[in-house]
Amino acid sequence: MERRDPELEEQLLQTLNGVRFGRPCYAFRQVGSTMDVAKQLATQGEPEGTLVFAARQEQGRGRLGRRWESPEGGAYFSLILKPSRPPAESPQLSLVAGLAAAEAIQEQHTAMAAASGSRSGTRQR
After folding, report:
1. Domains along the chain with CATH numbers
2. Which residues, listed in sequence order, are joined to residue 117 by a DSSP beta bridge?
3. Which of 51, 60, 74, 119 has the smallest number of Cβ neighbours within 10 A?
């Protein structure tokens, strides 16, 4: 497994204070793929909610194994989930998670823009 970054892990844990998921947290400056690390950790018995974060991926993958561009300075992560729903419903989980993430980013951006007096906005496709 790649070398963990304890300083980055501490920053993430402080940011995730009070959040249900994200513990334990494995943070890396660079990995092949956060999904591969998460899969290995899940196989070793890490619990639901374990977060694998990287600032860069060399072999990131998206849906259907499509290559995922993951340049330096990003926020790439995988979260170990152990859903009680049947596997056939898994694609719905991805859609709901994506929508929730987009809404959370929009809310944070709006709050930050209001606090700074900025008039910039986010663009959704």
Report:
1. 1-82 (3.30.930.10), 84-125 (no CATH)
2. none
3. 119
